[in-house]
Amino acid sequence: PHDPTPQHVLLQMDDQHRLLHKATPQGYSTNCCINKNPGAHCGSQEGSFAWIDHRLLRNGFIAVMTSQELSLYLFLALAADRNGVSFYRQERISDILGLDAQAFTVARDRLVELGLLLFDSYSITSPNGFYQLLPVNHDAPDFVAQCDHVEQLVNAFTVKTK
C-alpha cells in the first residue's frame, strides 16, 4: 500500500517551540499553532472551551458508538460546565441534533450503559434532567467476545440430539 505521508516536511518553530508553518514537497503550507510546552497556551481562548477525551478513540468507544451517540456525546461535552454537567432540555438537544425523542432516548441510555454518562431525571415523569459526562477510564465493551460467549452458553445448554 502507498503511504501518503510526505517523506520531507519542513517545520518552522518560534522561540516558544510553537509550530508556525508546515510545508511538504507537494507545496502544502499552513499557519499552525501547536504548542509543544504542556501547560502553556498558544494564543488566547475567548469564552468557554471544551476538550474531547482522546480515550474515546484509544479505548475503543468510537468504534462501538452510533452516529447519534457520538453527536449526543459531543453536544454534551460542548454544553457541559467545568464538572461535565449539562442542563439542556431533551427537546432542545433533539432539535439541535435532529433526533426524534426515541432516537435521543436510545442514544442517551446507550451512553449510560457504556459508562460514559450519568443521567438523573428531574422527576419520575420528566424526560429532562442532569447529564454528567464521566471520565473515560475503562475500555469499550468487546461485543465480538460477548457474542462468542453467548454462543458458547447456548451450545452448553442446548440438548444434543442424534
Distance N to C terminus: 50 Å
Structural class computed from helices and strand pairing: alpha+beta
Rg, Cα atoms, Å: 23 Å
Range of helix content: 25-40%
Instruction: Note poorly predicted spans.
Output: 2-12, 18-32
Principal-axes geometry comes out as elongated
Spatially, the strands of the biggest sheet line up as: 1-2-3
Query: What is the overall pLDDT average?
Result: 77
Q: Describe the main β-sheet briefly.
A: 3 strands, antiparallel
**Number of E-type strands:** 6
Number of helices: 6
Oligomeric grouping of the chains: single chain
**Strand/helix succession:** EEEHHHEHHEEH
Bin the strand percentage. 15-25%
Provide a short characterization of the protein structure.
The chain has 162 residues and is an alpha+beta fold. 35% of the residues lie in helices and 18% in strands.
Describe this structure in words.
With 162 residues, the chain is α+β, with helices and mostly antiparallel strands. It contains six helices and six strands; from the N terminus they run βββαααβααββα. The strands form two sheets. It has a three-stranded antiparallel beta sheet, with no helix packed on it. It has a three-stranded antiparallel beta sheet with strand order 4-6-5. A hairpin with a 4-residue loop joins β1 and β2. The termini are far apart. The N terminus is likely disordered.
